[in-house]
Amino acid sequence: MLLGPALAVSALLFTIGVVGVLFRRNAIVVFMCVELMLNAANLTFVALAQRLGVAGHVFVFFVMAVAAAEAAVGLAIILAIFRHRETVDLGNINLLKG
Amino acid sequence: MSLTEILFWAFSGCAVVAAVLCITRRNPVKSALWLVVTLFALAGLFVLLDAHFIGVLQILVYAGAIMVLFLFVIMLLNLGQGAPADRRGLAGGIVAAGLGVGLLLQLSVLRAARPPEAITLPDGYLTALQREQGIVGAVARPLFAEYLIPFEITSVLLLAAIVGAVVLAKRRL
């Protein structure tokens, strides 16, 4: 029941997220691409839960909770960086570059 | 094709197109709004895959709370318009596209992936469980029985995230 197509869509969305992370330099857009990848993983969990039991839905809960925590802390870090350097461009945040 | 399949492909196409637009728009606000479209389409897919409660949560938590947080920060940083091009150059684009195609080829084996027969549950198991215990009950029962300790740890994680966000975003301690 739509298991194969759902996994294919999930793979496509995950790849789009990875390409976005590699292609963009705005920290907030990179962050949104990470959320996209988490959602692709959620789609895999939900698709497989149809055949492997309802535990997949429980795991989606945990992924959502972690994503919410990550968004709050990550955006606070971006705010702190912006206050320091007046930019959110990842090309300019290179303090650790050798 | 049944109505379920037609809706499935409509939502899938919507999600993928909106995701591509999300990573190619120059304006971060437009990116965020296309991401909201993707999240709504994914909520539709969740409902079609018998995860009604997850679909509702997706709209409430993701499209509601998390995306508002993103838009709020974009507004706070005043990135809306006149932002300089933030895409990497041609070389970066080629590297990103190459790695993306490689990853997609690796993930394409997923299309044929099937769980082993020994642990597969019979067809319609999830629907029967939801009819018996209710749509919320089917998820809540394992959450508060088998997964009680992970659930409690999640609350500690959220508390840590709240404290961390406040400390980081504060101008001066």
The CATH topology assignment of the largest domain in chain B is Four Helix Bundle (Hemerythrin (Met), subunit A)
Domains counted in the coordinates of chain A: how many?
A: 1
Multimerization state? heterodimer
Helix- and strand-based class of chain A? mainly alpha
Question: Greatest chain-chain interface?
Answer: A-B, 71 and 87 residues
Classified by CATH, the class of the largest domain in chain B is: Mainly Alpha
Distance between the termini of chain A: 52 Å
Shape of chain A: elongated
**pLDDT < 50 runs, ≥5 residues of chain A:** none
* Number of structural units classed as domains of chain B: 2
Text of the CATH class of chain A: Mainly Alpha
- Compute the CA-based radius of gyration of chain A: 17 Å
**Rg of chain B, Å, rounded:** 21 Å
Which structural category do the helix and sheet elements of chain B fall into? mainly alpha
Summed over residues and divided by their number, the pLDDT of chain B gives a mean of 87
Distance between the termini of chain B: 61 Å
Give the CATH superfamily of the largest domain in chain B.
NADH-ubiquinone/plastoquinone oxidoreductase chain 6, subunit NuoJ
- Helix fraction of chain B, binned, reads over 70%
